[in-house]
Amino acid sequence: MVGEMTNNGRIRPSFPVKDLTSNEGSEYGGPVEFTREDVETLLHERIKYKSKYNYKERCENTMDYVKRLRLCIRWFQELELDYAFEQEKLKNAMEMNEKHCADLEVNLKVKEEELNMVIDELRKNFASVQVQLAKEQTEKLAANESLGKEREARLAVESLQAALTEELAKTQGELQTANQRIQAVNDMYKLLQEYNSSLQLYNSKLQGDLDEAHENIKRGEKERTGIVESIGNLKGQFKALQDQLAASKVSQDDVMKQKDELVNEIVSLKVEIQQVKDDRDRHITEIETLQAEATKQNDFKDTINELESKCSVQNKEIQELQDQLVASERKLQVADLSTFEKMNEFEEQKESIMELKGRLEEAELKLIEGEKLRKKLHNTIQELKGNIRVFCRVRPLLSGENSSEEAKTISYPTSLEALGRGIDLMQNGQSHCFTFDKVFVPSASQEDVFVEISQLVQSALDGYKVCIFAYGQTGSGKTYTMMGRPGNPDEKGLIPRCLEQIFQTRQSLRSQGWKYELQVSMLEIYNETIRDLLSTNKEAVRADNGVSPQKYAIKHDASGNTHVVELTVVDVRSSKQVSFLLDHAARNRSVGKTAMNEQSSRSHFVFTLKISGFNESTEQQVQGVLNLIDLAGSERLSKSGSTGDRLKETQAINKSLSSLGDVIFALAKKEDHVPFRNSKLTYLLQPCLGGDSKTLMFVNITPEPSSTGESLCSLRFAARVNACEIGTAHRHVNARPLDYRLSLG
Questions:
Q1: H-helix or E-strand containing 82?
Q2: Binding residues for ATP, per the UniProt record (predicted)?
Q3: Binding site membership: which residues?
């Protein structure tokens, strides 16, 4: 039994866990079941410490709490496996039902064709009867045989329709069962979401459980794939039911046409029967007249006998026509019954389609929620590990570049583990596979990219240090990713989108008592020299020799922050003001033309936003920093063709990027000495790479086949960066007066 200390000093008991030390069944003991109340109690539990400095007791309590959490996680995993198995069984049953329904539809179509043939024969026979009723007795026999066949066909159709109705009833029952299971899975998702929120609260205490969290993410991805397959199956079933509905409508139209034709035939038969009756009455009158005259004239006896025989023949014809009328009326009743059944079946299928639409929408929502949960869990794990997150973005092919299928060197794996996170590069017939936190294909928009980093930007308002920088060869789209295309709102880069989000969030948080002050600075590192891009003195920005006359020194303080002395700092109050400053900085930034890029950035651009927040109701103060960095592109002299000043710029850029690589190598190997001072760039990025910052790197690559070598180098460097563990970022909250000096962290 583990308890927690409440605010008034009392011990609040938590729920018991069965024999965690037992080895039977698993390392956590025998099978344990959890209720919603057990899970909530476990997630909200606080660990009691008798002594603040008794680290052994704190470690034991923490390990005990972690074991119970792992037991709870394993219970959730077993439930997920059970649901996946049930879902697979339902999928197989649905496939069998769909196949059976398709066979029944084929048989029904065949029978309908036979009925149409029989009806055509009946029409021909009936027409011949009208023309030669007295002379074509053999055709009447053929018509009787056709009527017999029609009855047999009708009985066969009725039996098929009954079988189809039973199959539809079974399918509806299975669909209802599947709906119940989906509802149960939805309830489980809510529990998992609550569990995810508890993980974020206790992330600093669960570093030893990273492997378990990795397995949880993989299972979540498997479940997401299962949901995707379920959506595909539902779409196929929906399409099949739509086809069946269309066929039912066509069949209903045919039956209605047949009904109208039969009604017309019955009317014509009734008219003919009336005519025959009139003839019979006329002949009877004639007979009676002749009989009256026969008493007077015996010479007419032969004529009377003739007329009597003719009357008897006509009576037989009338009887046959009446029999045909009765048969036609029965046929009409069968057609009406079939039409009614078709209408009922149509309504049932319509309801089934609406139900499938609802299930499809629920499954799609479930897929979206599962993807959000996977991202949150992955981000939590990355924060626990302290790794630098890496996103890869592939720019589209430009006009004039080779876009043939044979020349493509980049592909994207579709396996469960690498979907949306993997990229394969082909060089000299050899495939190189890489996996990052996210991979953006060429068709991804600026909005798609920003959605993935929006939560990271929000962390800066919460009091964290955040750094996002773009790395890659020249012409790979780094500046487009960070700045976008001026004058086109849909292609705004990450920097203007981040600022819009921050100002919008600042406005919405005012109702909660928060007030924020924002400060901006922008600089570039050109030939190992810092330039102030917001300076109003053009001579201070750039000199003819490429060296700024103003010396900007990088200083570190005791709090771990890095300040650039004498750098221009501007208080900002709106996104429009920041946009004006960005335009001003873009005009001052060093840009040149090379053989690889007509608008090549010749310096490293650093945008810094210092955020100072104060809550009037809680008197809480936070300090956050958002660093957005557009690194200059690496390039090879053999391709860029740089000479003169461009050659010096290229050498300085490659040297600083090489120093960045040395720092990443040292961090990856966890060496005691990390050479941050080897260049101005690495010295400036020290707080972002040193362990107290949430850091994200964009590696930009080009799909052009001639740049495969540079792209492979960039991907390998990004993989090393992704493997670096720099420590867990901490929120900067205090109750002292804020220091409003701008720093890089």
A1: helix 55-131
A2: 472-479
A3: 472-479
